[in-house]
Design goal:
single chain; 504 residues; mainly alpha; PPR_rpt; TPR-like_helical_dom_sf; mRNA binding; Pentacotripeptide-repeat region of PRORP domain-containing protein
Length: 504
Amino acid sequence: MMKRVWRISEFQKCINTRNIITKPSLPLQFIRHVTQSPGIDDGKHTTLSDIVSLFSDKWSRNPAETILKKNLREKVSKLKDELLTQNEDPEKIEKVLEENGVALFRIYSDGSAVVELLFQLKSFPYLAMEVFSWRRKQLDYSAPMTVEEYAKGIAMAGRLKNIDLALELFKEASNKQLMATSLFNALMSAYTYNGLAMRCQSLFRDLKMESTCSPSIVTYNILISAFGRLMLVDHMEATLREVKDLNIPPTVNTYKGLIAGYITAWKWEEMEKTYRLMKAGPIKPDIDIHLLMLRGYAHSGKLERMEEIYDMVRDHVDQNEIPLIRTMICAYCRNSRVGRVEKVDELLRLIPEDEYRPWLNVILICLYAREDLLDQMENSIKEAFEHKAYVTTVGVMTCIISSYFRQNAVDKLADFVQRAECAGWKICRSLYHCKMVMYSSEKRLSEMERVLCEMERVNMRLSKKTFWILIKAYKKWGQRSKLEQVVGMMCKHGYGVPLDACNL
C-alpha cells in the first residue's frame, strides 16, 4: 500500500476535529507518525517544533514546547552562574561570553537566549547591562538584534536611571525599522520608573499615531501606573475609561496600578471599591493585589481588615515582605487598640537583626513610652545608642521624659539625659526641668541644683519656668534663704515675683 503524504493543511484540519481535541494522548502519537513521513509541506523537512506550533492555540501547556523552554533556561542558567562569579569585571565578563555565550546565542538566533539571560540577571542590573552592551557589539558576525532584546535593554537602562541610554536604544531600534509596541512599552516603563510621567504620556501619544503598531493593555497599564505614582487620580481614571471604550480586556496589572495609585493618593474608599470589583468579577485578586491591600489597610488604620488580609497571605509575608511587616508595625503603633504591643512584638520577631531601621526604632521607643513599659523602652533606647542613631524631634524626647516621670524613675532619667547629650540627641529644656521636679519631690535638692550647672554646660539659659520650679521646691522644703536668692535672680532677669513667693 502506498504511504499517504500529509500536508500541513490536512494536518491542521485533522487536529481541529473533536476526536483529537478530546483525547490528549492521540496528538502526540500523531505527531510522531507525521514527523517520520516524507513529503510534508511539499517535500520540505518539518521538525517536531514546526508541528507542535500548530497546537499552540489548543493547549496552553504544550509538552514539547515546555521541554524546549526548560532546556533553554537550564543552558542560560549555567552561563548566568558563571557570569556572576566574575565580580562585574568587564574584561572577565567579555571573556566568558566569548567562550560560552557566542555558541549558545548562535543556536538561538531568534534572540531568545539573550532575552532569557537578561531576564535571569534582572536582580543584577549592572551585570545585565554589561551583557547587553557586549551583545550590541556582536552585530557584525552574529544574528541582528531583535525587538525583544532592545526592549529588555531599554527596561534595564531605565532601572539604572540612565534615561539617555534608554532613549538611544529606542532610536537605534527605530532606525532599524524594528518599531513595535513592546519598545514603546519598555521606554514608557523607563520613564515611569524615573518619575517622568509627562514624557511617558507624550510617548504614549506618539504610539497612538504610529501606523505599524498600537497601544496594548500593557501600554495602558504602564500609563495608569505612571499617573498613580504622581497621584493624578483623574488622569488614571480617564485612562481606565479609554480602555473600556476600546473594549480592551483589563488584566490583573490594570487593577494593580489602580489600587497602587489610590493608596498613594490616600483614596481609601476607591481602593476598597476596586478590590470589591475584582472579587466580584472574572479577574480575581492575586498575591500582589493582596499585598497592596494589606499596605493600604495598614496606612488607613483599618486594623481588622488589615489582619484579615494578613491571615490570607501570612506565609508569604512572613518569609518575603519585611518592609510590609514594618508597615504593619507602624499601623499598630499609631492605633490605641488594646493588645497592640503584643501584636507588635510578634511581628518584630519576624524581622532579622540585620534589617535594623532607625526610624522604626524611634517609633517603638514612643510606643513603649506611651504604654509605660519602661524596660522595653530602655531596651529600644539602648539599641538606638548602639546603632549610633539619634532623635532630632522634641516630641519624641517629651514622650520619653513623660514615661520616666510617670514611673518616678529619676535616676534612669538622669542616665538617659547624660547619654543623649553624648549621642547628639535633641536636647530640650524639658529634660532638665523634669529632672529638677523629680529631684525636688524626693528632697534631693543638691542634685536638683546641679541640674542648673548641666543646663549651663549645654548653653541652655534659665527660663521663668526654671525659677518657678526652684521656688516651689525651696518653699515646699522650707529653704527660706535659698528661696530669697531665687526671688532676687528672678527680679534681676525681669521675670517678676509671685506675691506669695517668700511666704513660708
